Amino acid sequence: MHRTLIWSMTLLLTLCLTDSLIAANPEAPRPNIIIVLVDDMGFSDLGCYGSEIETPHIDQLAEKGLRFTQFYNSGRCCPTRASLMTGLHPHQVGIGHMTASPGKPLGFEGAYQGYLNQNCTTVAEVLKSAGYQTLMTGKWHLGAEQQECWPLQRGFDRYFGCISGAINYFKPGGDRGLTLGNRNVDVPKDFYATDTFTDYACEFISDASKNEEQPFFLYLAYNAPHWPLNAKVEDFEKYRGKYTAGWEKLMQDRFRKQVELGLFPEDTEQASHVGPKWDSLNDNQRDRLDAVMAAYAGCVDSIDQNIGRLIEHLKDEDEYENTVIFFLSDNGACQEGGTLGQGGEKMVRNPPLETVDGVKLGLAWANACNTPFRLYKHYVHEGGACTPMIAHWPAGIADSDEGTFVREYAYLPDFMATCVELSGATYPEGKPAHAGQSMLPLLKGIEKAIHSEPIYWEHEGNAAMRMGNWKLVREYRKPWELYDISQDRTELHDLATAHPDQKQKMVAMWEEWATAHDVAFPERFNMYEFLRKQGQDGK
């Protein structure tokens, strides 16, 4: 039977099953929706994805919910946020590379203008039109200079956080401060970003819960564990000394746990480490690197503590059962900071304030945090673009499905379609059609692919396309690679030479997509390179 016909019949069955599930309980109240996005966390950094870092509250969400094994981000902070918020590709909404740095507008419009354009709608705007209360705390990173693209102007009723990108966890300063609503505000007493963003999220939920007629949407965007790795001292000390065996041992231990959990089959070939051998480093280097990884682990642990607080608050407000919680990272672990990262114990204990200078993870640890994949943030190989993603919904996920894996692939634009279906909202006319498909069938345990058409990526000239089990991918200015992901999840056996027709077919499709979406190729656009040519440093 023709593949298209098979897929059409499958889609029809899926839609019928989904409609019947909804129709079976038409009086069920619409769920609250929470999207928790963390920043620069690797694929294997949660306990339920293989980590030694203690994340019991997030692990409980996975145990009572669903873990996605093939959920894709956009490879970098703000392109991911742009796609998640709009259901479109980043280039369609003006953030084809990065948002313009504070005080450094690029001076042009289009796919790479560096701020959210007006030719799109946000999830918040769509849900607000359907009667949802819309709340946000945390990192916006979709444009700082133009207030018309700030959260309150793009559909959120309430907002507290940082409009720009990275901030200091203890005392933000300079042009990377804090905003409440549309007002710049002083740093609150006893501020710690992860805690304070949760405090405001809980406050907003309490106020929203007073209105029983309107469900709420919360977008909680933590800046952790993005650099600077400003761990609390007590969280840092919890992990100090736990990484003295090095990255090779960490990767072995995490992969063994991933196999035990059922994330990967035992015969999965693990990508090798690309940094120096741990034993080749001197004692001082190994001690400093243990401290760097301990700071990173402390930041992840703090996120988990706050997820625990959020869950307890939902229960206290009697909102827990009918709240859908999605938890994911914006890209793979971050290699920025050089191969061996920067900073050490002294900088953790006495961090510079009002600056984003500080401890950075570096390539060698980032490589390990993305176990078992290749590469990291910036890239669209699995290590950069595949994220841990958890869906939790006591009232909507069947007991028999709790703790299971979703092995069908999905990606960021699917959030718009999913929120539209969950809320009963109508996507507005006059805007570009969103690029995603609803994940609701996957939440309902229907083990069928939601994507029949290819999905695409481009960031900094790094590019990819997924079509069924085939993945076409390349690093900028390097040859296209081709993988059968069903057989080679870690992208170690390039089939481009063995299947030249398949490769060329997919390259032609990618180029057609790129042309239609104003992607700069074969020469990329890079904001930092552009600013340097203009005599600015872009920081």
Number of distinct helices: 15
- Detail the poorly predicted runs: 1-24
What's the gyration radius in Å?
22 Å
Main β sheet profile: 11 strands, mixed
Strand content: 5-15%
Per DSSP E runs of 2 or more residues, the count of β-strands stands at: 15
Structural class: alpha/beta
Q: What is the helix fraction of residues, given as a range?
A: 25-40%
**Secondary-structure element order, N to C:** HEHEHHEEEEHEHHHEHHHEEEHHEEEEHH
Shape from CA axes? globular
State mean pLDDT (0 to 100 scale): 94
Terminal CA distance = 55 Å
Secondary-structure topology with pairs:
Elements: H1 3-23, E1 32-38, H2 56-63, E2 66-72, H3 77-86, H4 123-129, E3 133-139, E4 158-162, E5 178-180, E6 183-185, H5 193-209, E7 216-221, H6 233-239, H7 247-261, H8 283-316, E8 323-329, H9 345-349, H10 363-369, H11 382-385, E9 386-392, E10 404-406, E11 410-411, H12 414-423, H13 440-443, E12 455-459, E13 462-467, E14 470-474, E15 481-484, H14 500-516, H15 527-533
Parallel strand pairs: 1-7, 1-8, 2-10, 2-11, 3-4, 3-7
Antiparallel strand pairs: 2-9, 4-5, 5-6, 8-9, 12-13, 13-14, 14-15
Key structural traits:
single chain, 539 residues, alpha/beta, eleven-stranded mixed beta sheet, four-stranded antiparallel beta sheet, 15 helices, 15 strands, 32% helix, disordered N terminus
